[in-house]
Amino acid sequence: LFNFSAGPAMLPVDVLKQAQEELLNWNGQGVSVMEISHRDPAYVHMAREAEQDLRDLLNVPDDYEVLFLQGGGRGQFSAVPQNIASPDATVDYLDTGIWSGFAIREAEKFVSRVNVAGQVQEGAKGKEIQSPKDWKLSENAAYFHYCPNETVDGIALHEIPDVKAPIVADMSSNILSEPLDVSKFGVIYAGAQKNIGPSGFAIAIVKKSLLGEPQKQVSSIMDYQLQAKDGSMYNTPNTFAWYLAGLVFKWLKAQGGLTSMGERNRHKAQLIYDFVDKSDFYSNKINPAYRSIMNVPFQLADDKLDEAFLKGAKEEGLLGLKGHRFVGGMRASIYNAMPVEGVEALLSYMADFERKLG
Ligand code: PLP
């Protein structure tokens, strides 16, 4: 089976097998990792090792906190303004798709002005993100927020923006997919359920110099400073998610780290885009320069065939291909855990389907 779901997504099989083996007896303790205190030295050791592995993978500079939090990606939509902007601040957001829109509406609750600095547009080569020269940035924005990979729309900004304000990025669906220069960012956050581990868990990588005074009403569990001080254990963390994330980080290191993941991910995506571009039956409406390497939406020439396509795919063991309910069509999410064999199986099914019904 290959699971193309956008999230919660497929985890590496090796990781799941290891977790299964250790489920009843973790680290020789005779009990599951879920039944051990997060203050137990063995657990703390594992948790710190997971943090170090993540730091190694992303080359996180020392002047950044790495936080393991709860509340998923959306939790960070409200944590960010409350932690790094005052209530009377102006903040800049790019509105590039569905997730940016949700982030904007959440930020509006916590700051006096959310300026939408740039958007998506229809260009000659398809849907694209406005060029930075057309962005309307504020003079004194507390931060600039964008979502480099819009999971639903399959649109991506591959260049890190060159702006004055600290950059905040929602990397829920592209974190760890390729090498990244963390030093260009003020905050990077991600809900875990695509490239890291179970849903409900989140990671925030925060430049220490941004940890000034959080807003008064920020809830303690969302307070970056408090969580940093307590090693992300202000309250009981999601111990199982943290453990699984740690296994995923070790798996990524064993795969050759992010350089090798990046090559693999670009290759997988290119196989699908090339196939779709050559076909008269399938299409992708995003300008090639802005196409995601994690989420590949595609449409059939006749949407009346969508159901038959999905039914046949399921019979072939190709799961989770239905596009998001807001946009319809199909979407193949090909996060780190998806092997190239999964993509090949998908393309072989697509070719077959086109031959029979196209
Ligand atoms: N941001 C992006 C880019 C996402 O893809 C998602 C979920 O898919 C979220 C935020 C929301 O994450 P969560 O459901 O963990 O709150």
TrEMBL record:
Query: What is known about its subunit structure?
Result: Homodimer.
Which EC number(s) does UniProt give? 2.6.1.52
Q: Where does L-glutamate bind?
A: 39
Q: Which gene encodes it?
A: serC
The record's annotation in PANTHER family points to: PHOSPHOSERINE AMINOTRANSFERASE (PTHR43247:SF1)
Q: Residues that bind pyridoxal 5'-phosphate, according to the entry?
A: 73-74, 99, 151, 170, 193, 235-236
Looking up NCBIfam families in the UniProt record yields:
PRK05355.1, serC_1
What does the record give as cofactor? pyridoxal 5'-phosphate
Organism expressing this protein natively:
Idiomarina rhizosphaerae
**What is the catalytic activity of this protein?**
4-(phosphooxy)-L-threonine + 2-oxoglutarate = (R)-3-hydroxy-2-oxo-4-phosphooxybutanoate + L-glutamate; O-phospho-L-serine + 2-oxoglutarate = 3-phosphooxypyruvate + L-glutamate
Family to which the UniProt record says this protein belongs: Belongs to the class-V pyridoxal-phosphate-dependent aminotransferase family. SerC subfamily.
Q: What is a single cellular component term in the Gene Ontology annotation?
A: cytoplasm
Q: Name one GO biological process term.
A: L-serine biosynthetic process
**Membrane in keyword set:** no
What's the name of the protein? Phosphoserine aminotransferase
Q: Which Pfam families does the entry mention?
A: Aminotran_5 (PF00266)
Q: Name the enzyme group at the top EC level.
A: transferase
Keyword Zinc among UniProt keywords: no
Which residues get modified to N6-(pyridoxal phosphate)lysine? 194
**Domain named Aminotransferase class V: which ranges?**
2-346
Q: Could you tell me where this protein is found in the cell?
A: Cytoplasm
Cofactor binding summary note: Binds 1 pyridoxal phosphate per subunit.
Q: Which domain of life is it from?
A: Bacteria
Q: Name one GO molecular function term.
A: pyridoxal phosphate binding
What does the UniProt keyword field contain? Amino-acid biosynthesis, Aminotransferase, Cytoplasm, Pyridoxal phosphate, Pyridoxine biosynthesis, Serine biosynthesis, Transferase
Entries under InterPro entries matching the protein: Aminotrans_V_dom, Aminotrans_V_PyrdxlP_BS, Pser_aminoTfrase, PyrdxlP-dep_Trfase, PyrdxlP-dep_Trfase_major, PyrdxlP-dep_Trfase_small
This chain's function reads: Catalyzes the reversible conversion of 3-phosphohydroxypyruvate to phosphoserine and of 3-hydroxy-2-oxo-4-phosphonooxybutanoate to phosphohydroxythreonine.
